Amino acid sequence: MGFKKLTKAGLIAVGLATAAPASAELFDGCPSVPILGKFIEFGKTGKMPMDLGKWLNTPSAQKVEPWKPFENVDYVGICWVSAWLVHTDDGVILIDTLYGPFTQQLIDNIQSVGVDMSDIKYVLITHGHFDHAGGAADLKPLLPNAKFVMTQGGWDEAIESAAKSEGRRKWDMIAPEIVAKDGDTIKLGGMEIGIIETPGHTWGTASFLYDVKDGENTHRAITIGGLGLNAIDGPAQVESYIESVDRVRALVEAKDQRVEAHLTTHGFSANLDENRQILERREAGDPNVFVNSDAILKDVAGLRSRAVKRLDIENSK
């Protein structure tokens, strides 16, 4: 996957497997603002900063211990790419698969929270970029009871991207299993995960809606499948992205089953680690920092504003 010069809105989920591994630590922990700053630098120059490339490919730097934003959800990803476990009464659902050297960290994280690989019944993949779909081939033989789910566009783009990969960036993709469509629902153990197609980041991007539990309270959460505007093929894709962002905003503003929590695909885009630390200090009676519709609306407004600017650029080409 080649790199294109990115706008600030297009700094997420790009091909980052080009730099050689290194042991140097670029950041102290997993701080959102400095990481985002490095991606902004990348976007301005179109050239991967050497230290960022090394950091992205250093397993020790990317390692994050699992943690729980909600009682029925575990974070099992790495610093720069998320993976989520959603627990039900009849098994577990995994969202996204990581990639390459980090798939083993994902496996270790899953097992460390007490989940047997045979307990995973569905793997939902947001889109076909390698950092979200690249671990599927390694996970497939380890998950005897799991079905993998993507949109048709997601399957197509993942298979095409894997087929074109080579050298150190080589990865494989499994054959399509469940093809999800807009409005479909995955049902498991009393949990229903709604699938909405949100094209723009890629044409095959999907987002997922599900309930999360916090004590006696239940909240509606979303994992927005794609946040950036990299690898854009023209104005139509940006227009589709804006429509998807508007759809997410409507879900947050809805009177019934409104979305109140965003469990992001890339932590540095939404202050994930900082909010984790706030949650760790939570005392009885304090609200859950991840239940924050206003914060989602603010993030969505920023995504839309930057997309409108990107649309002007695409239309002027």
Brief overview, please?
This protein has 317 residues and is of the alpha/beta class.
Task: Please name the defining characteristics of this protein.
alpha/beta, Metallo-beta-lactamase, Chain A, disordered N terminus, 317 residues, 5-stranded mixed β-sheet, single chain, 7-stranded mixed β-sheet
Any overview of this molecule?
This protein has 317 residues and is α/β, with parallel strands linked by helices. It has a single domain (8-315), classed as 4-Layer Sandwich (Metallo-beta-lactamase, Chain A). The chain is 34% helix and 19% strand. The strands form two sheets. Strands 1-2-3-4-5-6-7 form a seven-stranded mixed sheet. A five-stranded mixed sheet has the order 8-9-10-11-12. The protein is globular.
The chain-level structural class is: alpha/beta
The average pLDDT value, as a whole number, equals 90
- Residue windows where pLDDT falls under 50 for at least 5 positions: 1-23
Top-tier CATH class: Alpha Beta
Q: Spatial order of the strands in the main sheet?
A: 1-2-3-4-5-6-7
Q: CATH homologous superfamily? A: Ribonuclease Z/Hydroxyacylglutathione hydrolase-like
Give the DSSP E fraction (strand runs of 2 or more residues): 15-25%
Helix content: 25-40%
- Whole-number count of domains: 1
Number of strands: 12
> How large is the radius of gyration?
18 Å
CATH structural architecture:
4-Layer Sandwich
Largest beta sheet, briefly?
7 strands, mixed
SSE ordering: HHHEEEEHEHHEHEEEEEHEHH
N-to-C CA distance: 23 Å
Set out the fold topology:
Blueprint: H1 32-45, H2 50-56, H3 59-62, E1 67-70, E2 73-75, E3 84-88, E4 91-95, H4 103-112, E5 120-124, H5 130-133, H6 136-139, E6 147-151, H7 152-164, E7 178-180, E8 185-188, E9 191-197, E10 206-214, E11 217-223, H8 235-253, E12 259-262, H9 272-280, H10 293-315
Parallel strand pairs: 4-5, 5-6, 6-7, 11-12
Antiparallel strand pairs: 1-2, 2-3, 3-4, 8-9, 9-10, 10-11
Helix pairs in contact: 8-10
